[in-house]
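quick one
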Amino acid sequence: MSDLEKKLRPIYDALEVGNYREGILLCTKALKRQPDLHAVKALKALALERSGKMNEALALCEEIQWAKPTDEATLRTLSMVLKSAGKYEPMIKLYENASKAHPKNENLATQWFMSLARTRDFKGQQMAALQLHKNFKRTNYMFWAIMSITLQGQNVPANQPNVLYQLAERMMDKLNTEGKVQTIEELQLYLIILLGQKNRHVDALALLEGEIGVKTKAIENVELRHMRIELLIKAGRWKDARDAAISILKDSNSDDWRTILQYFDTIFLPVQDADLLASENLAEARTFTTELAKNETKNPKRGPFLAQIELEKRAQEKIGNNQEKVMDLLVSYFDIFGSKTCCFEDLSGYIADLTKDGSLDFCKRLRDTHGEKAETVKQICIQINIARFEHFVGLHTELSSTETTNLVNKLWKLYEDALPFGKDLEETERQYGDDYAIMAAHLLISLHKQTKSYFPLLTAVFMMEHALNASKHNYQLKLVLIRVYELLGAFSCAAAIYNTMGIKHVQHDTMSHFITDRAVSFGQFNDALNQLYGAHEIYHSNEAETPEMILQAYKYSTFSKMQEFIEFQSRLENSLQKMIADRELIRLELLKEDSVSRAITYLKELELGNLKYDDKFCESRIDNRDTSVMLNWNAKDTPSVEMLTRPAAQLGRVWMTLFTLVPCLLKHMAHLSPVDAEYERLVDTLESLAQDEAKTAELTGEEVKLAKIILQVARAYKVLFAAITAQNSNSASKEEPSATAAKIKELLTVAGSTLKREPVKSTGVLPWQSLNTLTLSVETVSYLNVTNHCLLELVATKANKKATFKAVNTVVQEFMGQCRQALQSVQADITALRNIAKPDRIRSGLLYEISDGSLIDFIRSPNNQALIEEKTLKIGASWMNSLVNLQQESISRVV
Amino acid sequence: MSSLRQFKATDLFHFNTINLDSLTETYNISFYLSYLARWPDLFSVQCTPSETLMAYVMGKAEGTGTDWHGHVTAITVAPEYRRLGLAEGMMALLEKVSEQPYDGYFVDLFVRRSNKVAIEMYKRFGYSIYRTVVEYYSGETTEDAFDMRKPLKRDVDRKSVRENGETFLVEPHEVVF
Ligand SMILES: CC(C)(COP(=O)(O)OP(=O)(O)OC[C@H]1O[C@@H](n2cnc3c(N)ncnc32)[C@H](O)[C@@H]1OP(=O)(O)O)[C@@H](O)C(=O)NCCC(=O)NCCS
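structure w/ coenzyme A:
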């Protein structure tokens, strides 16, 4: 053991068992004797970081960085600390320096490359890889270099000459002639380079079919096999392409849709539509698909049958007069696969292409064959599919309320009738009739949209909760519930369901919008914050984990995944949902500060670095939100259930801009900063947002008002700031103080009248809309408290002669009165609304109304009364939560 | 009518129909990406014509000597798409890839002793129980796993098939390659 190792051993031991205090002590002791021992210093930084003292750890790191250590142990430890702080840049220089100092150390040089790869510094990577290759002569380093060049070239527009790809290609060619391109991944890199350039598909094909292609058995790789056919089609080698597709479909996977589509390309692309009828191709395709379908005897795969439909549909599009054939195929497809859930998805696209009469006729033919028979599980599945199609072709729309109610009753009965068939199902499985229940809920949602009544929504809640008892894990029931609870203003209920869904990791990015969208509006700020912070973890994981995975891909030379990993990382990094969540977090954090001084401190400390709002930034956000996961059988081109159940317009770039501008403006004012170009830009952007109807359509009415009000006060700040500056410098342009006051008064009067609102009506329920109105009122006033304070402060601290602006102070104080009034109206509303949320009132009021004269069998059934009461009380409790919190928030904001 | 293709990292944004099902666990980014970074051809997905993900299988190649084999880490089919032969198609592909390019001796997988559906399915695909891993699954309740294997061409002596493998008990630490 070397001297140093002896010193380090006990420290390592302490850290290994998680005894960081001991570790820190040992380090401090060792450093006293020998202050320049970087390895120990780095370990101390690590121990500090692990015990949560990030700032101290980073300060120590900085010290070490200055000393430019070159030993592996120090660098490794240092990089661990910096990595956990999300700081990747400093290691680049350090590893570069170390590998120059020890040119024979391959590991250091590799680490240099990796540190560059972590930050996606492709050009740097190229240099490091070439250096590695020069010093250590391994071919894989050359591939790293080529990959790095390719990554630099990938953003060059397709129509421009790509010198980087040309360079990469030359390097590849050279390796190839030397016989050094040997693996499938290396071949794939070669293909990426060729196909990234214009019109090189013939060369790519030659490569794939040439020596390396044969050597690597490229054709047996699923992706390359697919690529080859694609290239053959591009090259017009129809017969080769067709033969290749046929052999896959016949010999290995008759279900492979990608290949079926390629097969059709070889049929349709070579022939003009006019010649199609007479061409051999169509006949050949008919024979082939029929033969494929014939071969599906036991456990038929769907592919060949859908291929027949697809073929005849295309023939119909191109030559017409083929409707009947398509129809017959659709019906016989249903005969084979009608009991499979996916049958609806398989056929709905084709049904949508039929005429209205055609689609009705399709449904009629299914009914004629299958009637309403539901004596076996298989028949139940068939019946549900027929119902899905009937819904899809419009048989469930444009019904009167009574008709809808009858249909809901019928569907619910079918649901109940199906339950006995599933009594032996595992707890993890779904009941066979669940989709009947969901369809009933869909109809109730439409009924709510039509009548504006909230009783259909309540009914949907009860039904879904009931169904959930029998299918504990059916996430489709849960998604409907979440949305309906939100429409009903019951955030706690929605969150309780959401929390059972096991949503984790990357799903936080795609699914959290179901619970976090405008979560502020429910007035339950802490719960909303928890949801947002929980979901936000994924973005930290992306920063910490994905770069390491990119390094893994280099380590295993998996070049085919490199661009994909980078795209994955960037989709999370630039996620629209992330930007929305960031802004919602600021809103909530600011709302948590109920005193003006704390709000101002928060604003002053707020980092604006990420709060961009320019067009380029907004447009380059990537929408990863999953909105297609919710079941939907509504007709094509009509709003989906996911859309119909949004409490307000979907959050998007306009919303994101608004809630960027607001904190930016407030921060500016909180600092009493001068009106500069940036401030003007903020005001201009807000102005154009507030006045553009296309934009405000993406916002709620309350949000638009908020925008307009903030615009007015931002202008007032500007007026006042200019006036004070002119007065102070006694400039010629200075105006009469009374004129300034008048201008400000005018602006604030508009703000004040925008702030005024009608009382929230009490209709027995407290839907999202009502809570949103109340919350936005409170939010607006908390911003105004800040801005009012800033206007007064501006006079108090910036004006040389304060007395001059007395009139301004009076105007501001008047406006503060209006803000107080706004809070008082909120309080008055809440006092009235609290009545409807009280358990005894719910029992005597809402519950009575729910069942009184209801035409819904479910509601009238005595068996369901306990559930109805329990769930209604839960909804009431959630309302009460919101109201109590909003009450407190509005009281504490009276200044 | 499903396209059987390699899984892409960006498919993680679209796998909710599969992963929201309670039987399918969602893991962190590293889990999926480390498989993709090393065995991109053993991670496949089945999707609909409109690119909805229906099912996926993830696997790896591991072991030394005659233990070198393909391993099925996870296979799952969204509830809506079960009993369409999707699992069958994915397993066939994984076996094919384990043979070429990996040149393994067999394919194996662990399955909960209680998962009768899956066990029967694997038997139909030519797998048999090689050994029982005692209390392999920990958590709220512990459960045994069956290590099921199917020989590939290279296993000419069919060493991966064992009579009454169910009675051959091993501890979890003994099954790490
Ligand atoms: C097990 C699972 C992967 C099967 O997927 P699948 O695509 O439905 O299976 P396939 O359609 O390819 O079925 C192949 C054969 O397996 C058998 N099988 C599959 N599911 C079955 C079931 N629920 N009941 C009885 N047999 C079944 C049948 O023999 C079937 O052939 P058949 O339909 O021609 O009779 C799927 O049910 C699943 O994802 N389950 C949850 C996750 C899980 O348990 N994974 C396995 C962990 S090791």
